[in-house]
Specification:
Helix content: over 70%
Number of strands: 0
Strand content: under 5%
Number of domains: 1
Order of helices and strands: HHHHHHHHHHHHH
């Protein structure tokens, strides 16, 4: 059996147990806030503070209308948190679950699905902030907002594949974890989270080479009443093929070594 076929087998086995991954992800979220009064709502409050700070300060610095800028920043920040959370956690994913990897025979993708489910739960909480902002600034609401759903779906597939890839590489090369943790804050300013690509002028061409920019566009643009351009859809579709293929191959070819790397 080829490595990709082995990877498909691992993914299929994990998908059959997806409810288990979701249960563990939800349990970890509750455990994190077990002794707090507001519980997971602290996620929402943290995002509100971030949106308020970035929205009001940067709207003044960029001389932008708050009614346009704050919704843009809100969606961009929520999507960024999903992307950054998935990438940052991925390098040390299997090391943090070493006891499970070494003692229980489980598909490696199950641990990845569990990690991404936790990030998606965070996203679901942060959507409360998005709803509140769009209730305050309803002029951006339109049927085009539903185009964000397929964008979110394909970005999620990319992030699951990236989590698996980086997780397997991080299990083998432990220096990858601190390297990614150092690079992600820089990536924040290189991605159109607190600004729009068109505000960069001639430098917008450089931004077109940033995959994270296209991840954000296919979700944020429809929320702002704009149809994402075909270039962004093409980038995301191409990245999906590459990341999924690489994740399946790497899983089939190297996942069986995970217990020895722990």
């Amino acid at each position: 059996m080829s490595a990709i076929a082995e990877g498909w087998s691992d993914l299929a086995a994990a998908w059959q147990r997806r409810q288990l991954a979701l249960y563990f992800a939800w349990s970890e979220t509750l455990a994190r806030y077990r002794r707090s009064t507001l519980g997971p709502l602290w996620l929402v409050l943290g995002t509100i503070v971030g949106v308020a700070g970035l929205g009001f300060v940067w709207s003044i610095l960029l001389n932008a209308k708050q009614s346009e800028y704050i919704p843009q920043v809100t969606v961009g920040l929520v999507v960024w948190q999903l992307i950054a959370g998935s990438i940052t956690e991925s390098a040390g994913l299997f090391a943090r679950n070493a006891s499970m990897v070494t003692n229980i025979r489980l598909p490696s993708f199950l641990i990845t699905l569990q990690a991404f489910s936790r990030q998606f739960i965070n996203l679901a909480h942060n959507l409360v902030v998005v709803v509140l902002v769009f209730l305050i600034f309803p002029q951006h609401s339109s049927p085009l907002m539903f185009l964000a759903l397929p964008g979110l779906a394909i970005v999620s597939i990319n992030l699951i594949a990236l989590t698996q890839i980086i997780g397997l590489l991080g299990a083998r090369y432990r220096d990858l974890d601190p390297l990614i943790s150092s690079f992600v804050p820089i990536l924040f300013f290189l991605s159109p989270v607190i600004y729009h690509s068109r505000q960069l002028g001639p430098a917008e061409l450089v931004m077109s080479l940033n995959p994270v920019a296209h991840y954000i566009r296919v979700i944020r643009d429809p929320m702002m009443g704009v149809v994402p351009d075909l270039v962004s859809y093409g980038w995301v579709a191409g990245l999906t093929v590459v990341t999924v293929t690489l994740a399946l191959w790497l899983t089939g070819a190297r996942a069986y070594r995970l217990p020895y790397w722990m």
